[in-house]
Amino acid sequence: MIEAVGLTKRYGDKTAVYNLSFQVRPGAVTGFLGPNGSGKSTTMRMILGLDNPTAGSVTIGGYPYRKLPNAARQVGALLDAKAVHGGRSARNHLLSLAQLSAIPARRVDEVLGVVGLQDVAGKRSKGFSLGMGQRLGIAAALLGDPQVLLFDEPVNGLDPEGILWVRNLMKSLAAEGRTVFVSSHLMSEMALTADHLIVIGRGQLLSDMSVTDFISANSADFARVRTPDTEPQQREKLSSALTEAGGHVLPEQDGALRVTGLPLPRISDLAHEADVRLWELSPHQASLEEAYMRMTQGAVDYRSTTDQKAGLQQPLPPGAQPPMPVPGQGQPGWYAPPPPQQGGAPFANPYGAQGAPARPYGAPQGPYNPYAAPAPAPAPAPAAESSQPASAPAAAPAAPASAPADLTKPEDAR
Asked: Please, what is the angle between helix 160-175 and helix 130-142, to 10°?
């Protein structure tokens, strides 16, 4: 178990962590959440003895990390996947860590198989991708088969298969009775992986509870109600009945109603009493992301603003009209329209199906040479006979220029 009591860390006049107290218990995946700059990485570094707290204490199994006997066999951590000598192979990197902690060499090959790097064990780590580096860092954390594991952004750079693997790995480690402490900014993953949450903001504890309790405490559940679209008067009738009963009704963009303050059975009874048919009556709960945003909205140090493009836009030429807004653009479910068509047919591939330039319209049949001279334009149709005299004949064509030299002949024969 990890236990922090009054943990405080100051860097000069800046307080990164202030009076932080919490417990990370075994048998569950504990998520560590907080905005950028909230002190998560500093807290994890103090747990591992990399930074000394200004005040307070943090222990693992009742001991500070530096006093744990053979700490690498009891605690595994991934704080920075890039903390690897790029000239070493994956196996040699793990082998050096194993030798420092008296871990058998066969364990190196075991963890390489666990993380899926057995095929690249002999390659230098400097050529690894971000996801491969993450896997190597996880292998280093698992090397001593520890009972306490700390991971900082373990799924960073992993593909969907790797993310699913890490999720299942965390759950299986916790199911074995280990203490698993995971820091991440991916709320969707925390919702699927974590059992308990510790949330901090600006170095102070904001929440310490289960995922379910956290969502319920920081969001409002609501019911989604939908009446027949062809009968808008029924929606108005139901909205009035729900409001009179003490519910709070908000219309949604697709015509449904969002109702809070009334349980689902009561909504159903009111609809029946008002003789209103329902197409939908479903409960909805806020996501972990919505609850987290509501909890931490006052503890965010770095906020994005709307991109002001006025200074970058080119002025319209005189007489030009500004482009018309696309109907529905920016609304949920809007997609860009297909590309325009010419003459009722989609744009053709200029390189054709086999990679050769497409045949121009009207080109003769047969093998098409894109580098040949263009075909002469067809002669105009003869004019109708008239009594007017014929015009003067056109001037004779100019004499052709001298033929180019034959490059196949010797120099003296030219």
From this structure: 10
Angle between helices 90-100 and 106-115 (to 10 degrees): 130
The residue ranges of DSSP E strands in 195-245, in sequence order, are 196-201, 204-210, 222-226
CA atoms of 66 and 268, how far apart (whole Å): 61
What pLDDT digit, counting tens, does each position of 136-161 carry? 999 999 999 999 999 999 998 899 99
What Cα–Cα distance (Å) separates residue 184 from each residue in 13, 197, 399? 27, 11, 81
Beta strand pairing call for 29-33 and 222-226: unpaired
What's the sign of the alpha-carbon dihedral 296, 302, 306, 307? negative
Per the listing, tokens 């033929």 go with 403
Q: Could you tell me whether strands 148-152 and 179-183 are parallel, antiparallel, or unpaired per DSSP bridges?
A: parallel
Give bridge partners of residue 226 from the DSSP assignment: 280
Please choose, from the candidates 97, 169, 103, the residue with its C-alpha nearest in 3D space to the C-alpha of residue 135. Answer: 169
Distance from C-alpha of 322 to C-alpha of 37, rounded to nearest angstrom: 42
91 near 120, Cβ under 8 Å? Answer: no
Residues 298/270, Cβ–Cβ less than 8 Å? no
Q: Give this prediction's pTM.
A: 0.68
CB atoms < 10 A from the CB of 380, how many? 6
Q: Which of 89, 185, 193 is nearest to 139 (CA)?
A: 89
| Contact assessment for residue 84 and residue 93, using Cβ atoms and an 8 Å cutoff | yes
Asked if 2 and 24 count as a contact pair (C-beta separation under 8 A), the reply is yes
Residue 239, both tokens: 């909205």
The residue written with tokens 């529905």 in the block is: 328
Q: Tell me which residue has tokens 């959440």.
A: 33
* pLDDT of the residue at 326: 55
